[in-house]
Recover the amino acids of this structure.
């Protein structure tokens, strides 16, 4: 029995990595539902990601800032949204260490602006109809696990450590506060590390693929022993679709890949897949692995218990780590034009600021 039937959806941050993969899935699958993508097109957002849906009659793009209350309120009035799926964020931990206030502005103030626009649009005339605000969040809000600890779940207390995760925690608290205080129909999902097509090459997986292909040094923080749980982005998009239609308001759903790996294992796997795809001798790319100064406050381990989502809504990951990484390597090697287009001057400036003094 569906809990929610979307008719008109505001997707924020739909030109970024996960948002674009979500739109590429949803726009063709739901031709009777209208999707409006509100994205500021920061360095992380690119309309190249959306070429497959840009001409679809049920899709429209608006360039703008989620923290602009007049713009957001005007979009609610013009489109009568039934649904918000909120991806827009500053999303890179290393950048949050260089420029924390940008993260507070977008992730906290931007989320608050959206929640308040939804409150005004949906609750001004009594109880809401069939409306829903889906807030997309991360496992990083739960802090860091030691090697033998049980994975994070929906009841794990918050313990963020970076300006990124603290700002995402703030946004999660605001989303739940709007449910508790105003009865705004909010759902929160917290997901582990995503990988797949259209990820900006500041993040570990595309950064290593691009640099391994070019035989450039491959920066591994500390000793490469930190552990992340990896989920293919298409599985995350499918989870959000499932939660959007069938999840309960006021609830949290943890989404994970069941694929914990040490960073060095991930980097070595990618090196071997790149060598194999390019027909190079085994070990060629691994020679570039370079251990660099660790990230300050680097969380040791993330892992997710997604049994609630599996039990209640019947979702589980479809991609294995091995097949998903192989497909992902192939995708980046076949989309060098996309990599070149997004790795512009501002990317190169960031890379120099981030890695120039390390080693
Ligand atoms: P991303 O950085 O690739 O994309 C973010 C998008 O938001 C970009 O298109 C950018 O232009 C847009 N944006 C940024 N500031 C904006 C603003 N003020 N107004 C409007 N648009 C703005 O991020 P992503 O990896 O796709 O992550 C999407 C969401 O999922 C984020 O909320 C992130 O916290 C969460 N998340 C990410 C991961 C992951 O592994 N990448 C895992 C779990 C949760
Ligand atoms: O060059 C690198 N070398 C390296 O060793 C980079 C970029 C990263 N790392 C390490 C740091 C992490 O332990 O690899 C791991 C993964 O790093 P990132 O790709 O920066 O991801 P992470 O910090 O784990 O956060 C990601 O997952 C959760 C996303 O960026 C977040 O948006 C999401 O919420």
């Amino acid at each position: 029995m569906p809990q929610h039937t979307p008719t008109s959806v505001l997707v924020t941050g739909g030109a970024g990595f996960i948002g674009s993969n979500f739109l590429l899935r949803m726009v063709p699958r739901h031709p009777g539902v209208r999707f409006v993508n509100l994205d500021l097109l920061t360095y992380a957002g690119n309309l190249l990601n959306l070429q497959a849906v840009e001409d679809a009659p049920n899709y429209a793009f608006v360039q703008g800032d989620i923290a602009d209350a007049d713009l957001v309120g005007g979009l609610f009035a013009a489109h009568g949204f039934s649904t918000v799926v909120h991806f827009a964020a500053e999303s890179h931990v290393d950048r949050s260490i260089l420029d924390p206030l940008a993260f507070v502005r977008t992730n906290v103030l931007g989320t608050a602006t959206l929640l308040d626009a939804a409150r005004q649009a949906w609750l001004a005339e009594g109880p809401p109809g069939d409306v829903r605000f889906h807030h997309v969040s991360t496992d990083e809000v739960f802090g860091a696990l030691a090697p033998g600890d049980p994975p994070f779940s929906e009841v794990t207390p918050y313990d963020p450590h970076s300006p990124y995760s603290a700002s995402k925690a703030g946004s999660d608290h605001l989303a739940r506060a709007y449910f508790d205080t105003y009865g705004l129909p909010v759902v929160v999902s917290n997901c582990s590390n995503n990988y797949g097509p259209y990820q900006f090459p500041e993040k570990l997986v595309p950064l290593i693929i691009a640099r391994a292909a070019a035989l450039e040094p491959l920066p591994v923080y500390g000793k490469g022993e930190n552990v992340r749980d990896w989920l293919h982005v298409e599985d995350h998009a499918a989870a959000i679709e499932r939660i959007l239609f069938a999840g309960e308001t006021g609830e949290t759903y943890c989404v994970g890949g069941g694929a914990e790996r040490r960073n060095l294992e991930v980097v070595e796997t990618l090196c071997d897949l790149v060598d194999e795809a390019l027909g190079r001798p085994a070990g060629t790319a691994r020679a570039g692995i370079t251990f660099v100064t660790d990230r300050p406050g680097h969380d040791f381990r993330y892992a997710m218990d997604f049994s609630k989502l599996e039990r209640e809504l019947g979702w589980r990951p479809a991609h294995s780590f091995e097949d998903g990484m192989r497909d992902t390597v192939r995708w980046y090697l076949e989309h060098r034009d996309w990599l070149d287009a997004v790795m512009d001057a501002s990317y190169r400036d960031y890379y120099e600021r981030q890695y120039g003094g390390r080693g």
User: Anything to note?
Assistant: Residues 91-93, 138, 140, 193, 203-204, 207, 219-221, 226, 228, 263, 295 surround thymidine-5'-diphospho-beta-D-xylose (ligand 2) (CB under 6 Å). Residues 176 and 186 are 7 Å apart (CA to CA). The first strand starts at residue 8 and ends at 12.
